[in-house]
Amino acid sequence: MREDMQYTPFDLEPADALVLFGISGDLAHKMLLPALYHLTARGDLTVPVIGVSTADWDDQALRAHARQAVTETVPDADEEVLDRMAGRLSMVSGDFTEDDTFAKLREAVEGFGFVTYYLATPPALFTTVAAALAGAGLNHHARLVVEKPFGHDTASAERLQEELSQYFDSAHLLRVDHFLGSEAVEGLMVARFANTLLAPIWHRAYVDNVQITLAEDFGVADRGPFYDAVGCVRDVVQNHLLEIMTYLAMEPPSVTDPSALGLEKWRVLSATRTMDLADTVRGQYDGYQGVPGVAPDSTTETYFATRLFIDNWRWADVPFYLRSGKSLAVTATEVVVELRKPPLELFGAKSGGTPADIIRFRVDGDTGIRAELMLRKPDADGTPVTVPVGVDFEQVLGRQQLPYETVLLGATAGDAEYFAFFPTIMESWRIVGPVLDPARPPLPYPPGSWGPPEAGHLPGLKRWHQPSARLFDDG
């Protein structure tokens, strides 16, 4: 294994300060600052946070902005917690391409033993900022954390890795996929490996197919310029959906450190066939080309559905159906595991056949697990009916942490478990490679639908198990 393919060690240094590049941006406003509030409320944010941005802000302006970002997301925000959070914030303003900005940053972090630099910036700035940090001598006793996407294909991901490795080695470079910070996504692994009820049936002898859906009922809004250059596959399929698939399909790691976990994920992805255009449907919602920042003749996909196979002993010949899209019927991220039907039809012949049992995992929003089982209906003919049995995680387990709470805590505490390993990133780009930027234009679909009708006819697909607006909503 090449040096740049080494796994990140799991015994990383804790940080004495967190530097957030792009603190005035949309990601920080919607995700990072609210996450910092919750970390403060739990007592997990114990280090100062230094924001770096081109915005002409002083400390007070940053603190006011942070308060606004939190109260928009947390209506009942505690004033005492907000004060404690604000007290940890300070600001460095300046252009990311100018030496003076990093000279001011060097003064701001002086005296801290170890620093985490978190880049909530466009990917085009990753190498620029990393080089500037090194030029100012700020890459020693420090860790660099970069947001997704990591590259836009196999070649660019490898090139970016080589560039960043000039300034931060593999032990001091972390790559964000915030789905890895989701408690519900991590809970897939716990549900599989901590319950002997599920473990024996989790393979090809009992599973007929697996469906993974990431649906959003809204369009690209003001992200037109970004989204049109990226599209659905690069935005969520190459990272989020394939990461979920690894949790569903991986073997149990032999030990509980991130390196062992990363190795098992890599094994799943390395056994996964590359995507086939013949098994794929791309779509674009009506009106997308009129979004500001979107090319009027854009062929960028806002919907994507495909069939995958994992060629190993556990999953051979079991189809994994992945789909995602904007402006769909509901917002939901859900896994459906459809079990094989009994070998003989004993109970449902009069009603046209007994449906297969399915297990749903909702991994975003109203997270939980729901099994749909067949039970006898108490009437004259005893017709089997589908009965839901499940758990609403928040109702039973309490508030679920936001993914970025876990990500930011891992970035400061030095926990690599919630970050993507470079070998798995490379396998993911290999898998999606054949469907990136095809010549065939995407198919149109109306907003509020489930995408192009052609997606319901993927090879081997009986039907999609559509998620409801809420996990236990059958309306």
TrEMBL record:
> Domain of life of the organism in this record?
Bacteria
- Sites binding substrate sit at H178, E216, D235, K326
Q: Which residues bind NADP(+)?
A: D95, F96, K148
* Residues annotated as domain Glucose-6-phosphate dehydrogenase NAD-binding: 19-186
EC numbers on record: 1.1.1.49
Glucose-6-phosphate dehydrogenase C-terminal domain location, by residue? Answer: 189-458
Q: Which UniProt keywords apply?
A: Carbohydrate metabolism, Glucose metabolism, NADP, Oxidoreductase
Under InterPro entries, the record lists: G6P_DH, G6P_DH_C, G6P_DH_NAD-bd, NAD(P)-bd_dom_sf
What does the UniProt record say this protein does?
Catalyzes the oxidation of glucose 6-phosphate to 6-phosphogluconolactone.
Family designation: Belongs to the glucose-6-phosphate dehydrogenase family.
Identify this protein by name. Answer: Glucose-6-phosphate 1-dehydrogenase
State the organism named in the record.
Streptomyces diastaticus subsp. diastaticus
